[in-house]
Fold this protein.
Amino acid sequence: MSAICYGLIHYLDKAQTKIRPEPIVAMGTNTQCTTVDYGAMSEALAAQAQKASDIPTDIFYNTQVIDIFEKEDKTFEIHCKDSSIYTANFVVVNAGAHSLFLAHRMGYGKHMGCLPMAGSFYMTNKHFLNGKVYMVQNNKLPFAALHGDPDILAKGKTRFGPTALMLPKLERFKPGTYWDFFKTLNFDFHIVKIFWDLLKDSDIRNYVFKNFLFEVPLINKGLFVQDAKKIVPSLSVDDITYAKGFGGVRPQVLDKEKEKLMLGEASINPGNGIIFNMTPSPGQHHV
Ligand SMILES: Cc1cc2nc3c(=O)[nH]c(=O)nc-3n(C[C@H](O)[C@H](O)[C@H](O)COP(=O)(O)OP(=O)(O)OC[C@H]3O[C@@H](n4cnc5c(N)ncnc54)[C@H](O)[C@@H]3O)c2cc1C
């Protein structure tokens, strides 16, 4: 990222015509793309992969994997809900929070638990921003800070969010994953200790409580707009609506051995030809 501006400035809040007291740290870029439509990119990559080789590249959509078994000849057998079975020499499981669920079923990653954190957005009807604007990250939190961006799929609208709310489901907008959540949380006294240590911190406690209120009807918009005003000071409650059907679940991984919430993505690679990836929020990449 090329920084075109970095420093300490005082910001004149036009809506309130007064100088905001807090120092504002800013950094920006105007030469690089900041937003990618990964859906369109995946379709393009799949089409190119199918064209590039004479060897057939098959894609099976809407095929839920139920179990993966390791065979004696070191291959894998993938069993699906529709009773189909596939064999593979190498398997990469990129199934969001279900990656850890499937890993646990094979006996891997038992020292980890998964805390699904749902995220929602608010949408405006008008164009408020030309590019992404992030608030400064609090390093204690595993999610990218609240940001506003012109939504590339909802043209002319600006999106603010995400919020963060613990949800007892491994996947949002899909039924029937509550029991899977409990199994993947891997609940025991280590998990209690992690929660206790997190909630002891007043920054985290306030963040959790505020984000819970962001999801409560009637009061959510008024509270959310207070935060979003830090990005667009003139924004009012009437400008935003809860974006139904937007957002998803970030699988936050809990390390039970270290008794810590893992910041950034987690991967389980037993070295035998199968990898399980969980990518909660690449906005926070900790290597
Ligand atoms: C609210 C929110 C805001 C975010 N903001 C950003 C951002 O600003 N920038 C950024 O870079 N990232 C962001 N992320 C993170 C980003 O969305 C994820 O890192 C990314 O989607 C992970 O891709 P994935 O393909 O690994 O998993 P997913 O996108 O989670 O896809 C997993 C897929 O696997 C499927 N699946 C699950 N179980 C099975 C099974 N048993 N069999 C078959 N299929 C299965 C699911 O249905 C799903 O389609 C955000 C995430 C959320 C929730």
Summary: The chain has a mean pLDDT of 87. The pocket of flavin-adenine dinucleotide is lined by residues 64-65, 94-96, 98, 119, 144, 162, 171, 247-250, 277, 279, 281-283 (CB under 6 Å). DSSP finds six helices and 19 strands in the chain. The helical segments are 38-52, 98-106, 178-185, 189-200, 202-213, 220-228.
